[in-house]
Amino acid sequence: MADAPYTPPKVWSADTVSGGRFATINRPTAGAREEKALPVGANPFQLYSLATPNGVKVTIMLEELIEAGHTGAEYDAWTINIGAGEQFTSGFVDVNPNSKIPALLDQSGLAPFRVFESGAILVHLAEKFGMFLPTDPAARAEVLSWVFWQVASGPFIGGGFGHFYAYAPEKYEYAINRYAMETKRIFDVADQRLAQSRFLAGDEYTLADIANFPWLAPFTEGNIYNDAKTFLSIDEYQNVARWVAEINARPAVQRGRIVNKVWGDEDTQLKERHSAADFAGKRLG
Question: What does the pLDDT read at residue 263?
């Protein structure tokens, strides 16, 4: 059945009630809505985030750096409850004027500075510690191409498919079909690439895999957007499944996936992370 006809007004206004899961916090304006400072710990990096795919990118990166012996990558991870609008506090807006997680405060040098947007955070950390981003121009270009492919593709998967399939108050055939098609095309891009190489940018595990894994893995595991795995026939993408399994076996990835996680079984949640000791008693993998 086609959606009910809609004629847009000449000038849109925010008087329209959008409904849906995030209706109480969505507004067409930016800036702080509440005066509230962010907590700050003693570690070199302060991460303000949630264990959504974009947040998990950064916690995996930080845990990989620590796993590799970079003690300077120690971090405090503070949960930002986006459903409650905590991304609109004055403290968070100071770190990310776009009011989206994740946001990072780098206080490893003489003067703290902010880094926001997940792709920017990953590149900043890779360059700072000299890991997961090759220096050879051709190899570096390949890695960055796959990183920013993910940055560009994420909105189609999340704000597009995920929203209309799982969160919208009503099901709209056109919107679901539009974004289901694009999500499957994205998976096919990754699947064809992973038929050619072990990892997305070649034979080495890089920033490209760290950026893409948190978005693609939940679909293969069937734990994102209700029954999206069945709806999109995700089992078709066997090369993606092979890649997901290999990456998910990495200890740093297993740790990174539960940081700032506040849903599911209690032993798979880690609301805050301040040291490696916080993972004691947690179920990983």
Answer: 96
- 19 confidence band (pLDDT: 50, 70, 90): low
Query: What is the CA angle 58-25-54, rounded to 5?
Result: 15
Chain-wide mean pLDDT for the chain? Answer: 95
Query: Tokens 């390949």 map to which residue?
Result: 142
**Beta carbons within 10 angstroms of residue 164's beta carbon:** 22
In whole angstroms, give the CA distance from residue 235 to residue 241.
8
The rounded distance, in Å, linking the Cα atoms of 95 and 104 is 7
Rounded Cα gap, residues 98 and 204, in angstroms = 33
Q: What are phi and psi of 226, to 5 degrees?
A: 60, -125
pLDDT (tens digit, 9 = 90+) per residue, 123-145? 999 999 999 999 999 999 999 99
229 phi/psi in degrees, rounded to 5? -60, -45
pLDDT in tens, 242-275: 999 999 999 999 999 999 999 999 999 999 999 9
